[in-house]
Design brief:
228 residues, alpha+beta, 40% helix, 4 helices
Length: 228
């Protein structure tokens, strides 16, 4: 019996070693699985963040209604950059001048970007974009005019093709177009100051009314909530 004890002890050690080996392999297997799951989860998180930040795939904002150049209404500024292969500069907002927009409690929800120069009917124009919660709802065109009557004819002809009948106001050149969900303001004016020579300029402002009206409704609700 004494001669058998070492074999019993050896079998016992071997059995425990096999069990421990299986446990270690099982632990390593589940550790590897958890690491893979964690890596996939982290990858999906950063991918989702990238898509959201860059307004790609499911986070695209744009509608199917064209605004200007290669942009559509409700596009984010990053979508516009990609669509037009350009870089937008920070612009200036003037919401405090406009009823409805100036009632927003958080005016930072309206932002502005711009392109310094585009070719508009052979005239040089500055193009400004306005966004509400990073969705394009308005763009503006501003430029110098040397032949007011000639530009007036060109502008009204081209704008009428897209926006229908021109509704004249009390000024010499100004008025508006209104078609479906788009409102267009058109005018010409003089800039005369001591710092620079007198300039004649044109101004075109095109607004996407569904998003604009959403801003107005949002502002009204915010104002009502101040005391209620």
């Amino acid at each position: 019996m004494l001669t058998g004890l070492p074999w019993v002890q050896k079998d016992f050690i071997n059995n425990n070693f096999d069990k421990m080996k299986k446990r270690i392999l099982k632990f390593l297997k589940w550790t590897f699985v958890l690491v893979i799951i964690g890596a996939i989860g982290a990858g999906l998180f950063f991918l989702n963040k990238h898509l959201r930040d860059e307004k790609l795939f499911i986070y695209k904002n744009g509608t199917d209604k064209k605004a200007i150049l290669n942009s559509t209404w409700n596009m984010s500024w990053k979508e516009i950059e990609r669509a037009n292969q350009c870089k937008l500069k920070d612009g200036v907002t003037f919401t405090f001048f406009e009823p409805g927009l100036n009632a927003l409690l958080d005016e930072k929800r309206i932002t502005a970007k711009q392109i310094d120069e585009i070719n508009l009917w052979t005239y040089s124009a500055e193009l400004g974009y306005n966004f509400f919660d990073d969705r394009l709802f308005r763009y503006k065109l501003l430029g110098k005019v040397y032949e007011p009557n000639e530009f007036d004819s060109i502008a009204k002809k081209n704008l009428s093709l897209s926006y229908g009948t021109f509704i004249k106001d009390s000024t010499q050149y100004g008025g508006k177009f209104l078609k479906d969900s788009i409102s267009v303001e058109y005018s010409q004016f003089d800039i005369d100051s001591k710092e620079q020579e007198k300039e004649h300029r044109f101004f075109i402002e095109v607004t996407y009314l569904p998003t604009f009206n959403e801003i107005v409704r949002t502002a009204e609700k915010e104002q009502q909530s101040i005391f209620h």
